[in-house]
Amino acid sequence: MLAPPTPEATLVPPAPPRAPVVPASSTSARPRRRRLRGRTGPYLLLLPALVPIAVGLGYPLARQFVLSFQEYGLAQQFGRPAEWVGLDNYTKLLTDPYVWGVIGRSIAFCLVNAGLTMVVGVALAVLMTRVGRFARTTLQIGLLLAWGTPVLATMTVWQWLFDSQYGVVNWLLAEPLGFEGMRHHSWIIEPLSFYLLATLIVVWMSVPFVVFSVYAGLLQVPDETLEAAELDGAGAWQRLRYIALPLVRPVLLIVGLLQVIWDLRVFTQIYVLQRAGAPTRETHLLGTFIYSLSKEFGTAGAMATIMLAITLALTIVYIRRMLREEP
């Protein structure tokens, strides 16, 4: 007969360790700290890049804004205190009909050039997706050469082409095509032909950026989507209009925004053509007009501020669309 188990033989499981008592305030603070760290983390990573940008761009912009309310000329550069004139510089500019003419020409030039650049650039980007490898490589090399050539070197070539005495363009128009009146035509004397030549040069130099940007976006369009649309009976134009272009719309918006900004503040092409013999007063755009006011820093600062306001007004539609499409 078995003896009953003694108390010493009975196995008693050890008691589980007691969890430390954590105050409710600390447990609720941890998720808040994590959320705060997750929100501020990206901004802290951007801080090293934002500081030099704020110093390099913010200070000149603030200095320009302050100068626009002062009478600041050559005397002030040699130590004379600048006189605060308030809105006098803006009033003098905005009541001058010639200034409004410059603003109107600049906006028209900007919109025409940006529109032509986008149309030609998108067309060439679509062409690059359709042609063979050899033709695509040749087109890419040509665009890179046009894009990488310095502006002054490009301007020298264009001046040779449209020279009134020895230009190839005048010779082609006079000899093979029979336009005798174009034999010694000066393209930069008349404002209309001046802006036509300037538009040709600006579009020529701006198209490569649009082509490469849009072409890179078109390469990301899924082939399966295009093949499915083709099986459903969609033609090439329908696939481009209703599938490809909507998918690359963010790229088009950003590139279009940049083109508007660049074409509104164009300077080098206009200035070089003016120095070649064009009438400056009839061909001034905002960039060259501000440069002509370089001896009057207060007036030039006011005009530059007006130009900044016009740029923001022209690009506000693009900015709203981009912000609306962000996730």
Automatic annotation (TrEMBL):
Q: Which InterPro entries did the record assign? A: MetI-like (IPR000515), MetI-like_sf (IPR035906), UgpAE/MalFG_permease (IPR050809)
Alphabetically sorted, this entry's keywords are:
Cell membrane, Membrane, Transmembrane, Transmembrane helix, Transport
* Gene Ontology CC: plasma membrane
Q: How does it sit in the membrane?
A: Multi-pass membrane protein
Q: Which GO terms describe its biological process?
A: transmembrane transport
Q: Name one Pfam family in it.
A: BPD_transp_1
Region annotated Disordered sits at 1-33
UniProt subcellular location: Cell membrane
Biased-composition ranges, Pro residues, are 1-20
Q: Where are the transmembrane segments?
A: 43-62, 98-127, 139-161, 192-219, 240-262, 297-319
> ABC transmembrane type-1 domain: from which residue to which, for each copy?
103-318
Query: What protein family does this chain belong to?
Result: Belongs to the binding-protein-dependent transport system permease family.
The record ties this protein, via PANTHER family, to: BLL4140 PROTEIN (PTHR43227), DIACETYLCHITOBIOSE UPTAKE SYSTEM PERMEASE PROTEIN DASB (PTHR43227:SF8)
Q: What is this protein called?
A: N,N'-diacetylchitobiose transport system permease protein
Task: Report the source organism.
Answer: Petropleomorpha daqingensis
